[in-house]
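Notes from the 1:1 (GR / supervisor)

We went over the backlog. Supervisor wanted to see one worked example end to end before approving the batch request, so GR pasted a single chain during the call. The sequence is below; no edits were made to it. Supervisor asked that the structure be written out right there so they could see what the output format looks like.
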Amino acid sequence: MRFASWLMLCVVCAPVFAANTTSELEEGLETYFAHCHEYGLFNGTVLVKQGGEVVYERALGAADLRDGRALDLDSAFYLASVSKQFTSMAAMMLVDEEKLSLDSPLTDTFPEFAGFGEGVLVRHLMTHTSGIPDHYQLLQAAPAGLTNERVLEVLVEHGALDFAPGTQWAYSNGGYVLLSMLVARAAGQSFRDFMQERIFTPLGMTRTQVVDSSSPALTNRALGFGADGALDDYELFTTGAGGMYTTVGDLSRWDDALASGELVSERLMQLAFTQALLEDGSRTQYGFGWFVHDDGRRVWHSGGLNGFGTMLFRDRSSGDTLIVLCNQRAASLGMFDFAEAIGALLAGVQPALPDIPVAGELRTLISTQGVEAALARYDVIRQSEAERYDLSEEQLNTLGYEYAQSGELDIALALLAKNCEVFPDAANTWDSLGEIQLLQGEREQALQSYTRSLELNPDNSHAVEVVGELTAGG
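Structure output shown during the call:
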C-alpha cells in the first residue's frame, strides 16, 4: 500500500532527524496545506496531534463552493468509510454486554441468508472476510436515497457469497451495512439512536450524527464537490459502511477515547487492532474497522465517496494522530498524499510541495480568456515552468472530458488535440480524441485517431470495435 511508504519514512528517519519543534511543525504544515489550497489540491479541515496533544488544526476553503460559505473547524463532513471503525465499536460494546457475540451467525438475525450465508459470523463482517458482496458493485450506481433495507434486498436477491467465510479478504460495504443492522437488532433501537446515546453524547461529540431517512438537517454542513467545482454531494441513507457526518474536533475526542480505552474491554480493543487471521493461517491487513500495520502500533482508515475524502491515522505508541476531511476531491492528490506529507513533517523531514495541477490554471483561463489563451499559457508553462507543474497526460485528458460532459465539445476537442501533440505515443490520448471527434461528427478524423491508438496499443478492444464500425460504415 502507498501508505506504507511514509510509515517506513517515520521508522527510518526518526533516529537521524530530530523531531520538529511545535512551531517548526506548525509552520511546515501551514506551508504545505496553504500551497495545496491555493492550487486547488485541498479544500477541507485538518487536525494533527503529536504525543496526544493538538499541534495544528486548520480550515481552508469553502463549505459550499456555490455561494462561498467558508469552512470552519466546526464544519461537519461526510465521513465515508472512516465510519466503519464506529460501527465495529458499537458491535464490540454489545459483545462486552453479552447482547452479541463475535461468533454469532448472520442467519440467526437474518434467516433470509439461509441457503447461502451459513457460516458468516459477526467477526467476518467486521474484518471483511465474510464473502458478502459489496452492494456498490451489485448496484453499479447507488441511487439517491438508498436505504439499509434496499441493500439487504439486493444482497438476498443476489443469493451468493463471493467466497467461503474466513477464507479470503475482500472489502465489503455490504457487510458493514449488515453489521449496523445487527447492532440495531441486538440493541433494540435504531443504529442512529444507539450511536448517539452510547458513543457521541458520552464523548461530547456534539457535531457528529448518523444520517438515515429519519435524520434532522445538519447545521454548518460541508457539501461535496468534484474537482471541477460541480456539486457532488452525499445523498444516501445507508448506515454502517458510511452514513456519518463529523468534525475534526469530534474525531479528536474519539481519538482520546480510543487512547484511554474507556469504551470497551482491553481484550476487544486488542482484537480491533490485530490483523485478522484467515483459515489458511495467513493474516490480512485489517482488524475490526481498521487497517493495521504489521507492527500493530499504526492503524488507519481512509474514505471517499462523491466529493468527500477522509483519513484518520493513529500511532498508538507515540500518540501521533492525523485527521484530514475534504469536501472537494482533487483529481491529482489523495488522502494518502496528505498523510505522507504530515508523517514526514512529524518525522522531522520537510516534504516537497506537490506539483501544481496545470488543469486548474487552464480551467480558469478558459473561463476568462478562452481556450486559445489557455493553450498558449500551457505552452509557456511546458517551456519554462515545467518543474513546478503536474504536466502528465491525465491533466489535459481529464479536463477535456470535463468540457465534453458539459457539452462544450469545441473546447474539449482543442484540449485533447493538444494532448495528442504533446503525448503522441500515448494510446489513451488518441482514443480520447477519437471519441470527441465522433461526437462532433468528424468520422474520418476519428478513424485516424482510433487507428493510431490501435497502433500504439493493439489490445485496445474499444478502438478495435470503433475502427470496425467506422470501416464497415464507409
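Supervisor's comment: The first strand starts at residue 44 and ends at 50.
Batch request approved.
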